[in-house]
Protein backbone atom coordinates (compact mmCIF):
# COMPACT_ATOMS: atom_id res chain seq x y z
CA UNK A 1 0.00 0.00 0.00
CA UNK A 2 2.84 2.36 0.86
CA UNK A 3 4.58 1.56 -2.42
CA UNK A 4 1.44 2.47 -4.35
CA UNK A 5 1.21 5.81 -2.56
CA UNK A 6 4.85 6.56 -3.41
CA UNK A 7 4.28 5.89 -7.10
CA UNK A 8 1.17 8.04 -7.25
CA UNK A 9 2.95 10.89 -5.50
CA UNK A 10 5.91 10.64 -7.85
CA UNK A 11 3.68 10.53 -10.92
CA UNK A 12 1.93 13.72 -9.83
CA UNK A 13 5.30 15.28 -9.12
CA UNK A 14 6.35 14.68 -12.71
CA UNK A 15 3.38 16.60 -14.05
CA UNK A 16 5.05 19.88 -12.99
CA UNK A 17 6.50 22.20 -15.64
CA UNK A 18 10.11 21.55 -14.65
CA UNK A 19 9.53 17.80 -15.04
CA UNK A 20 8.28 18.29 -18.58
CA UNK A 21 11.30 20.47 -19.37
CA UNK A 22 13.54 17.76 -17.97
CA UNK A 23 11.95 15.05 -20.10
CA UNK A 24 11.64 16.95 -23.36
CA UNK A 25 15.07 18.59 -23.26
CA UNK A 26 16.68 15.30 -22.26
CA UNK A 27 15.12 13.40 -25.15
CA UNK A 28 15.69 16.13 -27.74
CA UNK A 29 19.29 17.03 -26.83
CA UNK A 30 20.41 13.84 -25.08
CA UNK A 31 22.30 12.39 -28.04
CA UNK A 32 24.17 15.64 -28.74
CA UNK A 33 25.17 16.26 -25.13
CA UNK A 34 26.32 12.64 -24.87
CA UNK A 35 28.72 13.12 -27.79
CA UNK A 36 29.97 16.43 -26.41
CA UNK A 37 30.41 14.89 -22.97
CA UNK A 38 32.34 11.81 -24.11
CA UNK A 39 34.71 13.83 -26.30
CA UNK A 40 35.17 16.27 -23.42
CA UNK A 41 36.17 13.39 -21.15
CA UNK A 42 38.80 12.34 -23.68
CA UNK A 43 40.13 15.91 -23.92
CA UNK A 44 40.62 16.09 -20.16
CA UNK A 45 43.75 14.03 -20.82
CA UNK A 46 44.59 15.63 -24.16
CA UNK A 47 48.21 16.40 -23.27
CA UNK A 48 48.82 12.87 -22.02
CA UNK A 49 47.23 11.35 -25.14
CA UNK A 50 49.27 13.59 -27.45
CA UNK A 51 52.51 12.63 -25.74
CA UNK A 52 51.61 8.94 -25.91
CA UNK A 53 50.62 8.97 -29.60
CA UNK A 54 53.27 11.43 -30.86
CA UNK A 55 56.15 11.38 -28.36
CA UNK A 56 58.64 12.87 -30.85
CA UNK A 57 56.54 16.02 -31.19
CA UNK A 58 56.02 16.69 -27.50
CA UNK A 59 59.00 15.35 -25.58
CA UNK A 60 62.78 15.72 -25.91
CA UNK A 61 65.81 14.71 -23.91
CA UNK A 62 66.57 17.10 -21.08
CA UNK A 63 69.80 19.03 -21.60
CA UNK A 64 71.70 21.74 -19.74
CA UNK A 65 70.04 25.00 -20.82
CA UNK A 66 66.82 25.78 -22.69
CA UNK A 67 66.69 28.48 -25.33
CA UNK A 68 64.38 31.20 -23.93
CA UNK A 69 61.06 31.20 -25.77
CA UNK A 70 61.55 34.75 -27.03
CA UNK A 71 64.88 33.77 -28.61
CA UNK A 72 63.05 31.26 -30.79
CA UNK A 73 61.53 34.09 -32.87
CA UNK A 74 64.82 35.43 -34.35
CA UNK A 75 66.14 31.87 -34.57
CA UNK A 76 63.20 30.80 -36.78
CA UNK A 77 63.59 33.89 -38.95
CA UNK A 78 67.26 33.11 -39.41
CA UNK A 79 67.09 29.35 -40.01
CA UNK A 80 63.63 28.76 -41.51
CA UNK A 81 63.01 31.54 -44.00
CA UNK A 82 59.97 29.87 -45.57
CA UNK A 83 58.11 29.49 -42.27
CA UNK A 84 55.22 31.98 -42.08
CA UNK A 85 54.34 32.27 -38.39
CA UNK A 86 52.69 34.77 -36.05
CA UNK A 87 53.37 33.32 -32.60
CA UNK A 88 55.51 30.90 -30.60
CA UNK A 89 54.37 28.96 -27.54
CA UNK A 90 55.23 26.30 -25.00
CA UNK A 91 53.46 22.95 -25.19
CA UNK A 92 53.71 22.49 -21.39
CA UNK A 93 55.95 23.77 -18.59
CA UNK A 94 57.89 20.50 -18.30
CA UNK A 95 61.65 20.66 -18.94
CA UNK A 96 61.30 17.90 -21.55
CA UNK A 97 58.45 19.62 -23.43
CA UNK A 98 58.81 21.25 -26.84
CA UNK A 99 58.04 24.67 -28.29
CA UNK A 100 55.67 25.09 -31.21
CA UNK A 101 54.27 27.51 -33.76
CA UNK A 102 51.86 27.38 -36.68
CA UNK A 103 52.90 27.63 -40.32
CA UNK A 104 50.19 29.79 -41.90
CA UNK A 105 51.21 28.78 -45.44
CA UNK A 106 51.54 25.02 -45.01
CA UNK A 107 48.67 24.88 -42.47
CA UNK A 108 50.63 22.75 -40.05
CA UNK A 109 51.97 22.96 -36.52
CA UNK A 110 55.76 22.93 -36.28
CA UNK A 111 57.47 21.67 -33.11
CA UNK A 112 60.95 22.73 -31.98
CA UNK A 113 63.53 21.27 -29.65
CA UNK A 114 63.82 23.90 -26.86
CA UNK A 115 67.52 23.13 -26.34
CA UNK A 116 68.78 23.17 -29.93
CA UNK A 117 66.11 25.12 -31.83
CA UNK A 118 65.87 22.33 -34.41
CA UNK A 119 62.55 21.19 -35.85
CA UNK A 120 61.60 17.91 -34.18
CA UNK A 121 58.41 17.32 -36.13
CA UNK A 122 55.39 18.70 -37.96
CA UNK A 123 51.69 17.89 -37.84
CA UNK A 124 49.01 18.96 -40.29
CA UNK A 125 46.20 20.69 -38.43
CA UNK A 126 43.13 18.56 -37.84
CA UNK A 127 44.73 15.19 -38.58
CA UNK A 128 45.59 13.92 -35.10
CA UNK A 129 43.24 11.98 -32.84
CA UNK A 130 43.00 14.82 -30.31
CA UNK A 131 42.41 17.38 -33.08
CA UNK A 132 39.42 15.33 -34.23
CA UNK A 133 38.14 15.12 -30.66
CA UNK A 134 38.46 18.90 -30.31
CA UNK A 135 36.51 19.50 -33.53
CA UNK A 136 33.74 17.12 -32.50
CA UNK A 137 33.62 18.53 -28.98
CA UNK A 138 33.42 22.14 -30.16
CA UNK A 139 31.46 21.93 -33.41
CA UNK A 140 30.15 18.36 -33.95
CA UNK A 141 31.97 18.68 -37.33
CA UNK A 142 29.19 21.04 -38.45
CA UNK A 143 30.53 24.26 -40.05
CA UNK A 144 29.57 27.60 -38.46
CA UNK A 145 26.38 26.63 -36.59
CA UNK A 146 27.89 23.54 -34.94
CA UNK A 147 29.71 25.67 -32.39
CA UNK A 148 26.46 27.27 -31.28
CA UNK A 149 24.61 23.95 -31.21
CA UNK A 150 27.25 22.73 -28.75
CA UNK A 151 26.94 25.93 -26.69
CA UNK A 152 23.16 25.64 -26.46
CA UNK A 153 23.55 21.96 -25.59
CA UNK A 154 25.80 22.96 -22.69
CA UNK A 155 23.06 25.27 -21.43
CA UNK A 156 20.55 22.43 -21.79
CA UNK A 157 22.77 20.19 -19.63
CA UNK A 158 22.75 22.89 -16.94
CA UNK A 159 18.95 23.12 -17.14
CA UNK A 160 18.68 19.32 -17.00
CA UNK A 161 20.90 19.28 -13.91
CA UNK A 162 18.79 21.90 -12.13
CA UNK A 163 15.44 20.36 -13.06
CA UNK A 164 16.79 16.90 -12.28
CA UNK A 165 17.75 17.99 -8.76
CA UNK A 166 14.29 19.48 -8.30
CA UNK A 167 12.72 16.19 -9.40
CA UNK A 168 15.10 14.25 -7.17
CA UNK A 169 13.85 15.92 -3.97
CA UNK A 170 11.60 13.34 -2.29
CA UNK A 171 8.13 14.25 -1.10
CA UNK A 172 8.89 12.87 2.36
CA UNK A 173 12.23 12.81 4.16
CA UNK A 174 11.85 9.13 5.03
CA UNK A 175 12.20 8.44 1.31
CA UNK A 176 15.61 10.16 1.24
CA UNK A 177 17.61 6.96 1.71
CA UNK A 178 15.95 5.34 -1.29
CA UNK A 179 16.90 8.37 -3.40
CA UNK A 180 20.56 8.15 -2.40
CA UNK A 181 21.15 4.46 -3.06
CA UNK A 182 20.51 1.76 -5.65
CA UNK A 183 18.25 -1.08 -4.53
CA UNK A 184 20.01 -4.09 -6.05
CA UNK A 185 17.24 -6.41 -4.79
CA UNK A 186 14.60 -4.62 -6.84
CA UNK A 187 13.65 -5.30 -10.46
CA UNK A 188 15.94 -4.21 -13.30
CA UNK A 189 13.46 -1.46 -14.13
CA UNK A 190 13.67 -0.09 -10.59
CA UNK A 191 17.45 -0.42 -10.53
CA UNK A 192 17.68 1.59 -13.75
CA UNK A 193 15.49 4.26 -12.17
CA UNK A 194 17.70 4.31 -9.06
CA UNK A 195 20.88 4.56 -11.14
CA UNK A 196 19.45 7.56 -12.99
CA UNK A 197 18.71 9.33 -9.70
CA UNK A 198 21.94 8.39 -7.94
CA UNK A 199 24.26 9.24 -10.86
CA UNK A 200 22.49 12.53 -11.46
CA UNK A 201 22.59 13.58 -7.81
CA UNK A 202 26.17 12.68 -6.91
CA UNK A 203 27.71 14.09 -10.09
CA UNK A 204 25.55 17.24 -10.27
CA UNK A 205 28.25 19.62 -8.89
CA UNK A 206 30.76 18.58 -11.55
CA UNK A 207 28.27 18.36 -14.41
CA UNK A 208 26.83 21.78 -13.55
CA UNK A 209 30.28 23.43 -13.60
CA UNK A 210 31.26 21.68 -16.84
CA UNK A 211 28.07 22.77 -18.58
CA UNK A 212 28.25 26.36 -17.27
CA UNK A 213 31.87 26.78 -18.36
CA UNK A 214 31.15 25.12 -21.71
CA UNK A 215 28.39 27.60 -22.43
CA UNK A 216 30.56 30.56 -21.37
CA UNK A 217 33.45 29.40 -23.57
CA UNK A 218 31.20 29.14 -26.62
CA UNK A 219 29.41 32.43 -26.05
CA UNK A 220 32.38 34.36 -24.65
CA UNK A 221 31.62 37.21 -27.05
CA UNK A 222 28.48 37.86 -24.96
CA UNK A 223 29.64 36.63 -21.55
CA UNK A 224 32.81 38.77 -21.29
CA UNK A 225 31.06 42.13 -21.93
CA UNK A 226 28.36 41.18 -19.40
CA UNK A 227 31.07 40.38 -16.85
CA UNK A 228 32.57 43.83 -17.31
CA UNK A 229 29.10 45.41 -17.11
CA UNK A 230 28.57 43.72 -13.74
CA UNK A 231 31.77 45.45 -12.67
CA UNK A 232 30.38 48.83 -13.74
CA UNK A 233 32.45 49.08 -16.93
CA UNK A 234 31.22 49.68 -20.46
CA UNK A 235 31.02 46.43 -22.47
CA UNK A 236 32.86 47.96 -25.42
CA UNK A 237 35.77 48.64 -23.06
CA UNK A 238 36.82 44.99 -23.33
CA UNK A 239 37.24 45.16 -27.09
CA UNK A 240 39.05 48.48 -26.75
CA UNK A 241 41.51 46.99 -24.27
CA UNK A 242 42.23 43.85 -26.28
CA UNK A 243 42.47 45.67 -29.62
CA UNK A 244 45.00 48.21 -28.40
CA UNK A 245 47.33 49.26 -31.21
CA UNK A 246 50.91 50.48 -31.37
CA UNK A 247 51.62 54.12 -32.13
CA UNK A 248 53.38 53.97 -35.49
CA UNK A 249 56.59 56.02 -35.58
CA UNK A 250 58.10 56.57 -39.00
CA UNK A 251 61.76 55.64 -39.27
CA UNK A 252 61.86 53.85 -35.90
CA UNK A 253 62.86 50.19 -35.92
CA UNK A 254 60.34 47.92 -34.14
CA UNK A 255 61.53 46.16 -31.00
CA UNK A 256 62.55 42.52 -31.26
CA UNK A 257 60.83 39.71 -29.37
CA UNK A 258 63.74 39.36 -26.87
CA UNK A 259 63.62 43.11 -26.16
CA UNK A 260 59.87 42.99 -25.55
CA UNK A 261 60.25 39.90 -23.36
CA UNK A 262 62.81 41.80 -21.26
CA UNK A 263 60.20 44.52 -20.71
CA UNK A 264 57.72 41.86 -19.66
CA UNK A 265 60.26 40.38 -17.25
CA UNK A 266 60.70 43.75 -15.56
CA UNK A 267 56.94 44.05 -15.08
CA UNK A 268 56.39 40.43 -14.04
CA UNK A 269 59.66 39.13 -12.54
CA UNK A 270 58.11 35.99 -11.03
CA UNK A 271 56.07 34.99 -14.10
CA UNK A 272 56.82 32.39 -16.77
CA UNK A 273 56.43 33.40 -20.40
CA UNK A 274 54.00 30.97 -22.06
CA UNK A 275 53.50 32.46 -25.52
CA UNK A 276 54.35 35.47 -27.70
CA UNK A 277 52.06 36.73 -30.45
CA UNK A 278 53.83 38.99 -32.93
CA UNK A 279 52.40 42.26 -34.30
CA UNK A 280 50.23 41.60 -37.35
CA UNK A 281 51.21 44.85 -39.09
CA UNK A 282 52.93 48.20 -38.57
CA UNK A 283 50.33 49.29 -35.98
CA UNK A 284 49.94 45.92 -34.29
CA UNK A 285 51.26 45.19 -30.80
CA UNK A 286 53.05 42.33 -29.10
CA UNK A 287 50.87 40.08 -26.94
CA UNK A 288 52.69 38.18 -24.21
CA UNK A 289 50.97 35.46 -22.20
CA UNK A 290 52.39 34.79 -18.74
CA UNK A 291 51.71 32.36 -15.94
CA UNK A 292 52.44 33.11 -12.29
CA UNK A 293 52.42 30.78 -9.26
CA UNK A 294 48.89 30.48 -7.93
CA UNK A 295 46.57 28.38 -5.82
CA UNK A 296 45.43 26.56 -8.97
CA UNK A 297 47.92 24.16 -10.51
CA UNK A 298 47.37 25.83 -13.87
CA UNK A 299 48.67 29.11 -12.44
CA UNK A 300 47.34 32.62 -12.82
CA UNK A 301 47.15 33.79 -16.43
CA UNK A 302 48.31 37.33 -17.22
CA UNK A 303 48.25 39.11 -20.57
CA UNK A 304 50.63 41.94 -21.49
CA UNK A 305 50.17 44.03 -24.64
CA UNK A 306 53.30 45.99 -25.55
CA UNK A 307 53.77 48.76 -28.12
CA UNK A 308 56.21 47.45 -30.74
CA UNK A 309 57.99 50.82 -31.10
CA UNK A 310 58.09 52.47 -27.68
CA UNK A 311 57.98 49.34 -25.54
CA UNK A 312 55.18 50.85 -23.49
CA UNK A 313 52.96 48.31 -21.71
CA UNK A 314 49.54 49.38 -22.98
CA UNK A 315 47.69 46.58 -21.19
CA UNK A 316 48.56 44.58 -18.09
CA UNK A 317 45.62 42.32 -17.27
CA UNK A 318 46.91 41.86 -13.71
CA UNK A 319 46.28 45.56 -13.05
CA UNK A 320 43.75 46.55 -15.71
CA UNK A 321 41.24 43.70 -15.47
CA UNK A 322 38.61 43.49 -12.71
CA UNK A 323 38.17 40.47 -10.46
CA UNK A 324 35.75 38.86 -12.89
CA UNK A 325 38.30 39.27 -15.68
CA UNK A 326 40.82 37.21 -13.73
CA UNK A 327 38.12 34.60 -13.11
CA UNK A 328 37.59 34.32 -16.85
CA UNK A 329 41.29 34.18 -17.78
CA UNK A 330 42.56 31.88 -15.03
CA UNK A 331 39.60 29.67 -14.13
CA UNK A 332 37.22 29.17 -17.07
CA UNK A 333 39.20 26.58 -19.06
CA UNK A 334 40.85 24.89 -16.02
CA UNK A 335 37.41 24.36 -14.47
CA UNK A 336 36.04 23.04 -17.75
CA UNK A 337 38.75 20.39 -18.04
CA UNK A 338 39.40 19.89 -14.33
CA UNK A 339 43.07 20.83 -14.60
CA UNK A 340 42.97 23.46 -11.82
CA UNK A 341 43.34 20.92 -9.01
CA UNK A 342 45.56 18.23 -10.47
CA UNK A 343 44.71 14.60 -11.10
CA UNK A 344 41.83 14.55 -8.59
CA UNK A 345 39.74 17.22 -10.30
CA UNK A 346 40.75 15.93 -13.74
CA UNK A 347 39.27 12.55 -12.85
CA UNK A 348 36.10 14.28 -11.66
CA UNK A 349 35.87 16.16 -14.97
CA UNK A 350 36.49 12.90 -16.85
CA UNK A 351 33.65 11.18 -15.00
CA UNK A 352 31.42 14.25 -15.36
CA UNK A 353 31.81 14.14 -19.13
CA UNK A 354 30.60 10.53 -19.26
CA UNK A 355 27.57 11.14 -17.05
CA UNK A 356 25.31 12.73 -19.75
CA UNK A 357 25.59 9.53 -21.81
CA UNK A 358 24.71 7.35 -18.81
CA UNK A 359 21.78 9.58 -17.87
CA UNK A 360 20.55 9.69 -21.47
CA UNK A 361 20.47 5.89 -21.64
CA UNK A 362 18.86 5.36 -18.23
CA UNK A 363 16.47 8.27 -18.80
CA UNK A 364 15.38 6.91 -22.17
CA UNK A 365 14.70 3.51 -20.59
CA UNK A 366 12.51 5.27 -18.01
CA UNK A 367 10.71 7.43 -20.57
CA UNK A 368 10.00 5.03 -23.42
CA UNK A 369 7.53 2.67 -21.66
CA UNK A 370 5.60 5.66 -20.33
CA UNK A 371 5.55 7.29 -23.75
CA UNK A 372 4.35 4.12 -25.48
CA UNK A 373 1.46 3.82 -23.01
CA UNK A 374 0.27 7.41 -23.41
CA UNK A 375 -2.06 6.54 -26.26
CA UNK A 376 -4.13 4.27 -24.02
CA UNK A 377 -4.33 6.74 -21.13
CA UNK A 378 -7.05 9.32 -20.84
CA UNK A 379 -5.55 12.75 -21.18
CA UNK A 380 -6.23 15.28 -18.49
CA UNK A 381 -7.94 18.47 -19.63
CA UNK A 382 -5.48 21.30 -20.11
CA UNK A 383 -5.65 24.12 -17.65
CA UNK A 384 -6.75 27.42 -19.14
CA UNK A 385 -3.71 29.62 -18.79
CA UNK A 386 -5.34 32.74 -20.22
CA UNK A 387 -7.28 35.06 -18.01
CA UNK A 388 -9.25 38.22 -18.57
CA UNK A 389 -9.40 39.05 -14.87
CA UNK A 390 -6.79 41.80 -14.77
CA UNK A 391 -7.35 42.55 -11.11
CA UNK A 392 -5.69 39.24 -10.11
CA UNK A 393 -2.45 39.86 -12.03
CA UNK A 394 -0.74 41.75 -9.21
CA UNK A 395 -1.59 38.99 -6.75
CA UNK A 396 -0.42 36.37 -9.24
CA UNK A 397 2.93 38.13 -9.80
CA UNK A 398 3.43 38.67 -6.07
CA UNK A 399 2.74 35.01 -5.37
CA UNK A 400 5.36 33.80 -7.85
CA UNK A 401 7.84 36.49 -6.83
CA UNK A 402 7.75 35.15 -3.27
CA UNK A 403 8.25 31.63 -4.60
CA UNK A 404 11.08 32.91 -6.75
CA UNK A 405 12.85 34.44 -3.74
CA UNK A 406 12.67 31.09 -1.99
CA UNK A 407 13.97 29.21 -5.05
CA UNK A 408 16.71 31.80 -5.65
CA UNK A 409 17.89 31.65 -2.03
CA UNK A 410 18.23 27.90 -2.20
CA UNK A 411 19.85 28.16 -5.64
CA UNK A 412 22.45 30.62 -4.34
CA UNK A 413 23.51 28.29 -1.55
CA UNK A 414 23.44 25.28 -3.88
CA UNK A 415 25.62 27.11 -6.43
CA UNK A 416 28.19 27.90 -3.74
CA UNK A 417 28.06 24.31 -2.50
CA UNK A 418 28.43 22.83 -5.99
CA UNK A 419 31.50 24.90 -6.77
CA UNK A 420 33.05 24.04 -3.42
CA UNK A 421 32.33 20.32 -3.82
CA UNK A 422 33.98 20.27 -7.26
CA UNK A 423 37.22 21.62 -5.83
CA UNK A 424 37.19 19.99 -2.41
CA UNK A 425 39.31 17.01 -3.50
CA UNK A 426 42.15 19.45 -4.25
CA UNK A 427 41.55 21.69 -1.25
CA UNK A 428 40.44 24.55 -3.53
CA UNK A 429 36.86 25.50 -2.66
CA UNK A 430 36.45 29.30 -2.52
CA UNK A 431 37.34 30.13 -6.13
CA UNK A 432 35.16 27.44 -7.80
CA UNK A 433 32.28 28.33 -5.47
CA UNK A 434 32.28 32.04 -6.29
CA UNK A 435 33.06 31.35 -9.94
CA UNK A 436 29.79 29.41 -10.14
CA UNK A 437 27.83 32.26 -8.54
CA UNK A 438 29.40 35.01 -10.66
CA UNK A 439 29.02 33.26 -14.01
CA UNK A 440 25.55 32.00 -13.11
CA UNK A 441 24.67 35.64 -12.40
CA UNK A 442 25.67 36.50 -15.97
CA UNK A 443 23.11 33.99 -17.25
CA UNK A 444 20.52 35.20 -14.74
CA UNK A 445 20.94 38.84 -15.82
CA UNK A 446 20.70 37.85 -19.49
CA UNK A 447 17.60 35.80 -18.71
CA UNK A 448 16.06 38.75 -16.86
CA UNK A 449 16.56 40.96 -19.92
CA UNK A 450 14.72 38.35 -22.01
CA UNK A 451 11.91 38.19 -19.42
CA UNK A 452 11.51 41.98 -19.64
CA UNK A 453 11.06 41.72 -23.40
CA UNK A 454 8.58 38.88 -22.90
CA UNK A 455 6.67 40.96 -20.35
CA UNK A 456 6.54 43.91 -22.74
CA UNK A 457 5.19 41.66 -25.48
CA UNK A 458 2.63 40.22 -23.05
CA UNK A 459 1.42 43.69 -22.04
CA UNK A 460 1.06 44.76 -25.67
CA UNK A 461 -0.92 41.61 -26.46
CA UNK A 462 -3.18 42.19 -23.44
CA UNK A 463 -3.91 45.75 -24.60
CA UNK A 464 -4.90 44.73 -28.13
CA UNK A 465 -6.68 41.44 -27.33
CA UNK A 466 -7.97 42.14 -23.80
CA UNK A 467 -6.41 38.90 -22.60
CA UNK A 468 -3.56 38.24 -20.22
CA UNK A 469 -1.08 35.43 -20.80
CA UNK A 470 -0.18 34.63 -17.22
CA UNK A 471 2.99 32.55 -17.77
CA UNK A 472 4.73 35.70 -19.05
CA UNK A 473 4.13 37.41 -15.70
CA UNK A 474 5.22 34.29 -13.85
CA UNK A 475 8.43 34.16 -15.90
CA UNK A 476 9.15 37.81 -15.15
CA UNK A 477 8.45 37.44 -11.42
CA UNK A 478 10.74 34.42 -11.06
CA UNK A 479 13.49 36.07 -13.13
CA UNK A 480 13.31 39.25 -11.05
CA UNK A 481 13.59 37.24 -7.84
CA UNK A 482 16.76 35.51 -9.04
CA UNK A 483 18.35 38.81 -10.08
CA UNK A 484 17.56 40.31 -6.66
CA UNK A 485 19.25 37.38 -4.88
CA UNK A 486 22.30 36.81 -7.10
CA UNK A 487 23.27 40.25 -8.40
CA UNK A 488 23.99 41.85 -4.97
CA UNK A 489 26.55 39.12 -4.24
CA UNK A 490 28.53 40.00 -7.38
CA UNK A 491 28.17 43.74 -6.77
CA UNK A 492 29.34 43.30 -3.17
CA UNK A 493 32.48 41.51 -4.38
CA UNK A 494 33.16 44.32 -6.85
CA UNK A 495 32.45 47.17 -4.41
CA UNK A 496 34.50 45.77 -1.54
CA UNK A 497 37.40 44.90 -3.83
CA UNK A 498 37.79 41.45 -2.28
CA UNK A 499 40.43 39.54 -4.23
CA UNK A 500 39.03 36.08 -4.87
CA UNK A 501 40.63 35.28 -8.21
UniProtKB/TrEMBL annotation:
- Specify the PepSY domain's residue ranges: 259-314
Superkingdom of the source species: Bacteria
Give yes or no: UniProt keyword Membrane. yes
Q: Membrane-crossing residues?
A: 21-45, 148-169, 199-228, 347-368, 407-430, 436-465, 477-500
Keywords, alphabetical: Membrane, Transmembrane, Transmembrane helix
Q: Which InterPro entries match?
A: PepSY (IPR025711), PepSY-ass_TM (IPR005625)
- The yes or no answer to whether the keyword Transmembrane helix is present is yes
Which residue spans adopt a coiled-coil conformation according to this UniProt entry? none
Q: Which PANTHER family match?
A: IRON-REGULATED INNER MEMBRANE PROTEIN-RELATED
Question: What is the protein named?
Answer: Uncharacterized iron-regulated membrane protein
Species this chain originates from? Parapedobacter koreensis
The organism that produces this protein has a lineage beginning with:
Bacteria, Pseudomonadati, Bacteroidota, Sphingobacteriia, Sphingobacteriales
